[in-house]
Design brief:
The complex is a heterodimer.
Chain A: H1 2-6, H2 12-23, H3 26-38, H4 45-72, H5 78-85, H6 89-94, H7 97-126, H8 137-152, H9 159-163, H10 165-183, H11 186-213, H12 226-234, H13 244-257, H14 264-268, H15 279-319, H16 321-335, H17 341-375, H18 379-399, H19 405-444, H20 454-488, H21 490-519
Helix pairs in contact in A: 2-11, 2-15, 2-17, 3-13, 3-15, 3-16, 4-5, 4-13, 4-15, 4-19, 4-20, 7-10, 7-17, 7-18, 7-19, 7-21, 8-16, 10-11, 10-17, 10-18, 11-15, 11-17, 12-15, 15-16, 16-17, 17-18, 17-21, 19-20, 19-21, 20-21
Chain B: H1 3-29
The chains are: A mainly alpha, B mainly alpha.
C-alpha cells in the first residue's frame, strides 16, 4: 500500500481540472439542452439551479470532505473511506458501489468514446458520415441513422466484429490511451492530461459556438434563425414548473452531470493534505461543469439543429436523447453547414471525445487505487488486473450491441439507480454518522472560503430529504418498466449477471482488504483521533 | 426569442460565468500553501 500513499496532486488547479474533467461529459452538450427544451425552456433553469444549490454542491462538498479525511487515515478507495466515515462494515461494504459504478460504466463509456473519435476521423478525412445535403431531409436523416447503426453494431449482436472493425480499432486506441494515462499516475498522468485537455475542450466549444451563432437562416425558411433557435431553448414555459417530471428531470440532470455519487471524488480528493482547500475547490469544479453545460451546451446544440431542422425537427431530435441528438441528428446539421461544416463537425466530435476521455480516466483510477489498497499489489499488477476485468466487460458490451440493450441495462441500473443509492449513503454517513459538526470542521480545514452556515442545515436535512423525494419519484417512474424489460430480455439479464459477477469480485477484495488493513494497524472504523 | 427568454438566458449565463470567474479568481490569487 505504500506506493498508493505516495500519490499526490501537483497543483491546486490540477485536482480542480481533473474533477471538472470527470464531471464534464457528453451529457453537458447533448442531454442538458434536450432536457431543458422538453421541460419548460428557461423555466427549467429554476428547478435546475435549485437542485444545483441544494443537492449537487452540498453532496459534492460532503464527498470532498470525507475523501480528504479518509486519505489522512491512509485510505484512497471508496469502501475504505466510507468504512472510516460511516464507522463500520455496513458503510464499508455499501462502499463497493463507489468502485462498481465507475468500473461498470467504463465498460460502455470507452465504447462511446471510440464513436466520438471515429466520428471526428470521418468528418476530418471523409467530410462527414456520408450525408448528402442536396437530398431530402428524410433521406439525410436515414443515411445518418444507417451510419450510426453500422458503426455502433446497433443492428445485431456481434455486428461490429464482422462489419465495422474500424470501431474496434478506435476502441483499442482510446482504451490504450486511458490505461497509459492511468498508469502514469495521479500527477504525471491524470493531472497533466486534464490541464491540457480542459482548456482545449473550451477552445473547441468557443469555435463551435461562434460558428453556430453566426449561422445564416435558410432564405426559404427565414423564421428558422439562430435567435429563434435560442428561443426554442430559453423561452420559458411556466406550466412546466407545475409538472413534477420537470423537477425530477432537473435534479437528475444536476446529479448525473456533477458526478456526485459516482465514487470519483472519493478517490481524487483522498490525495489532498489537511491544509489543502476543499471548499473552494469543490465549488470551482462544480462551477466549471456548469459553464460547459449551461454556457456552451445551452447555446450550441439546439440552436444549430433549429436553423436546419426547424422547431418540430429540433424537438423530435431532443427527445431522441443523448445518442440520437449527438450521433444521428447533428451529423445532418453539420452536413448542411456548407464547406466549413466538415471542420465544425470534426471540432465538435473532438470536443465530445475530450469530454469523454477526461471522464473515462476518472472511472479507472478509483478501481486501480482500490485494487492496490485492498490486495496490496504493485501498480503494474493492479493495472493488469483492472485491464483484464475491463477487457471482459467492454468485450461483452461491444459484442452484445443490438439495440444498445446490454449497455443500456448497465447504464440504467449501475449508472443511474446505484448512483442515487451511493449519494444517499454518502450524505447520511457524512451528516449523521460522522456528524455534521465534525464534517463542517473538516470542510473548513484549509478552506479558502467560508461556506454559509445555512449549508449545515442543507446537508443535514434538505439534501437527504430532497434526494429521498427524487429517488422515490424516480423509482416510481422507472423501476416497473426496467424490471419488465429485464424479465423479457435474456440480453438484459446477461448484463445484470456481468454486474453481479463484478460486484462479487469487488466484495471479495473488500474482505481481503479489511483483513490486511487491520493487520497493518490502520484505523478502519475511525476509532482513534487523527494525529496529523 | 421572447423578452423573457433573453432574461432567463442572460441571468443563467451571468450566474454560471460569474460564479466560475469568481472561483478561479479566488483560486489563482490565494497564497500558495506551505509545504
Amino acid at each position: 500500500m505504500a506506493k498508493v500513499k505516495l500519490e499526490q496532486w501537483g497543483t491546486r488547479l490540477g485536482i480542480i481540472l481533473a474533477v471538472s474533467g470527470s464531471a464534464v461529459g457528453l451529457g453537458n452538450f447533448l442531454r442538458f439542452p434536450g432536457q431543458a427544451a422538453q421541460y419548460g425552456g428557461g423555466a427549467f433553469m429554476i428547478p435546475y439551479f435549485c437542485a444545483l444549490i441544494f443537492l449537487g454542491i452540498p453532496i459534492g462538498w460532503a464527498e470532498w470532505s470525507m475523501a480528504r479525511y479518509g486519505g489522512r487515515k491512509g485510505f484512497h478507495s471508496g469502501p475504505a473511506i466510507l468504512g472510516v466515515v460511516g464507522r463500520g462494515k455496513v458503510a464499508r461494504y455499501l462502499g463497493v458501489l463507489s468502485i462498481l459504478i465507475p468500473l461498470a460504466v467504463s465498460f460502455y463509456y470507452t465504447f462511446v468514446e471510440a464513436w466520438c473519435l471515429g466520428y471526428t476521423w470521418h468528418f476530418l478525412v471523409n467530410g462527414g458520415v456520408g450525408v448528402d445535403p442536396s437530398t431530402p431531409l428524410a433521406t439525410q436523416n436515414a443515411k445518418s441513422a444507417e451510419f450510426f447503426v453500422n458503426y455502433t453494431g446497433d443492428a445485431a449482436n456481434g455486428a461490429i466484429f464482422k462489419s465495422s472493425i474500424e470501431t474496434l480499432v478506435f476502441w483499442g486506441i482510446v482504451f490504450a490511451i486511458n490505461i497509459w494515462l492511468i498508469y502514469r499516475g495521479i500527477s504525471g498522468g491524470i493531472e497533466k492530461f486534464c490541464s491540457y485537455a480542459m482548456p482545449l475542450m473550451a477552445v473547441c466549444a468557443v469555435v463551435v459556438l461562434i460558428r453556430v451563432l453566426t449561422l445564416e437562416p435558410n432564405p426559404a425558411n427565414p423564421e428558422q434563425n439562430v435567435l429563434n433557435g435560442l428561443g426554442s431553448m430559453w423561452n420559458p414555459d411556466w406550466s412546466a414548473l407545475a409538472n413534477p417530471a420537470a423537477w425530477l428531470a432537473a435534479a437528475g440532470q444536476i446529479f448525473f452531470s456533477l458526478s456526485v455519487g459516482f465514487g470519483v471524488i472519493l478517490n481524487y480528493a483522498s490525495y489532498l493534505r489537511k491544509k489543502d482547500d476543499i471548499a473552494l475547490s469543490g465549488l470551482t469544479a462544480s462551477a466549471t461543469n456548469e459553464v460547459f453545460e449551461v454556457g456552451f451546451g445551452g447555446l450550441i446544440t439546439l440552436p444549430a439543429a433549429f436553423v436546419f431542422l426547424g422547431a418540430v425537427g429540433t424537438m423530435e431530435a431532443a427527445k431522441t436523447g443523448t445518442f440520437g441528438l449527438g450521433f444521428k441528428t447533428l451529423p445532418v446539421v453539420f452536413a448542411q453547414m456548407g464547406p466549413l461544416g466538415q471542420y465544425v463537425g470534426a471540432i465538435f466530435f473532438f470536443m465530445l471525445f475530450l469530454a469523454a476521455i477526461t471522464s473515462s480516466i476518472s472511472m479507472y483510477q478509483p478501481t486501480l487505487a482500490f485494487l492496490q489498497e485492498s490486495l496490496g499489489v504493485s501498480r503494474i499488477r493492479a493495472t493488469a488486473l483492472m485491464v483484464s476485468v475491463c477487457f471482459i466487460g467492454s468485450a461483452c458490451v461491444m459484442y452484445f450491441s443490438k439495440g444498445g440493450e446490454f449497455f443500456g441495462t448497465i447504464d440504467d441500473w449501475v449508472g443511474t439507480f446505484f448512483i442515487f443509492i451511493l449519494a444517499a449513503v454518502q450524505i447520511i454517513c457524512f451528516s449523521w454518522i460522522f456528524g455534521i459538526e465534525r464534517g463542517w470542521r473538516e470542510l473548513h480545514a484549509g478552506a479558502k472560503i467560508k461556506v454559509p452556515s445555512i449549508f449545515k442545515f442543507v446537508m443535514l436535512f434538505v439534501a437527504p430529504v430532497y434526494l429521498l423525494v427524487v429517488f422515490v419519484a424516480f423509482c416510481y417512474n422507472n423501476l416497473p418498466v426496467w424490471i419488465g424489460h429485464v424479465a423479457e430480455s435474456p440480453m438484459r439479464q446477461g448484463a445484470l449477471v456481468l454486474v453481479a459477477g463484478v460486484t462479487l469480485f469487488l466484495v471479495l477484495c473488500i474482505a481481503i482488504g479489511e483483513k490486511r488493513w487491520r493487520d497493518e494497524g490502520l484505523d478502519v472504523d475511525d476509532s482513534q483521533p487523527l494525529n496529523d | 426569442m421572447q423578452p423573457l427568454g433573453w432574461v432567463f438566458m442572460i441571468l443563467s449565463l451571468a450566474f454560471v460565468w460569474g460564479l466560475t470567474g469568481w472561483c478561479y479568481f479566488k483560486i489563482l490569487t490565494a497564497p500558495a500553501e506551505e509545504e
